[in-house]
Amino acid sequence: MSAGRRRADIRPGLDVGIVLKADQPTGRISYGTVQKILTNSPTHPHGIKVRLESGEVGRVKEIV
């Protein structure tokens, strides 16, 4: 399973790359530190949704 699709792999304080909702068509990745995990299910096919410490919300595409 690809990085960012398993909730167990993500935790607050982790540096990650996410795709914001507005950037989904382009796939542009924004980087930051996880503040909170927003997805409740153990896995998600498009990536676990998180809030970064900057306040940005998106789905995890890579773990830095």
Structural Rg: 10 Å
User: Could you estimate the helical fraction of the residues in percent?
Assistant: under 10%
CATH architecture: Roll
State the CATH class: Mainly Beta
Overall pLDDT:
95
Order of helices and strands: EEEE
Count structural domains.
1
What's the number of extended β-strand segments? 4
* Uncertain residue ranges: none
Q: Strand portion, in percent?
A: 35-45%
Largest sheet strand order? 1-2-3-4
Alpha-beta classification: mainly beta
Can you characterise this structure?
The structure is a single chain. The chain has 64 residues and is mainly β. The protein has one domain: SH3 type barrels (Roll), CATH 2.30.30. The protein is 0% helix and 41% strand. The chain is built from no helices and four strands. The protein has strands at 15-20, 29-37, 49-52, 57-63. It has a four-stranded antiparallel barrel. The two termini are 16 Å apart. The mean pLDDT is 95.
Short descriptors:
64 residues; SH3 type barrels; mainly beta
What's the structural blueprint in terms of helices and strands?
Blueprint: E1 15-20, E2 29-37, E3 49-52, E4 57-63
Antiparallel strand pairs: 1-2, 1-4, 2-3, 3-4
Task: Write a concise synopsis of the structure shown.
Helices cover 0% and strands 41% of the residues. It has 64 residues and is mainly β.
